[in-house]
Amino acid sequence: MSTLALIPAKKRSTGIPDKNVRDFKGQPLVKWAVGVGLATCDKTVVSTDSGEVEGIVGDLCEVLPRPAPLCTDWAPMLDVVRHALMFFDHDVIVLLQPTQPFRRPDHIKRAVSLLEETGADSIVSVVRVPEHYSPDYAMRMQGGELVPFNARSPSRRQDTEPAYSRDGTVYAIRRETIGLGSLYGDSCLPLVIPSSESVNLDTEEDWRRAEEMS
User: Fold this and answer.
1) pLDDT digits over 105-119, tens only?
2) Which of 2, 3, 41, 97 sees the fewest Cβ atoms within 10 Å?
């Protein structure tokens, strides 16, 4: 299977201004994703509307100009991937969001191998949600009072059902799955990442925590 590492790195960022070009541990954030893509995939492409991003990565990999309608905060990632597939014919799209600088080549290799070995439509990396944040403990407001969000509400932390959250380390998706209008398909398998190997940079607090962890 031929693999395309696709790195979405638009100019505008709400939570952390200019985060894709901001220095993280010695290099712009976007370059961490590019380095992993180059180490693991047949081709690495950055999808962007930013001249600054292009200047940073243009001598390392191909840069795909992204149309303005696909650079808004509400533009679906599926549409960004579809746009890229108009120009490349690879079998598997490996989506590498720059906001996960802790990813390693091993994560991508494991995801692609799992996709190939199982015949799944997609592989998505996840981290386990801490038990005290389990959906089993979620509450909602009803008439001004707190009531359990779900019928299941265990009294002991040990009885909560394991829950997982997508962490953005890697999405490995078959081209046919995207052609059918989904990033996941009917058969989406998890690649479980230890929380120590994962951080998502959406706020300044996230950024500080990541710098402390690394």
Assistant:
1) 999 999 999 999 999
2) 2
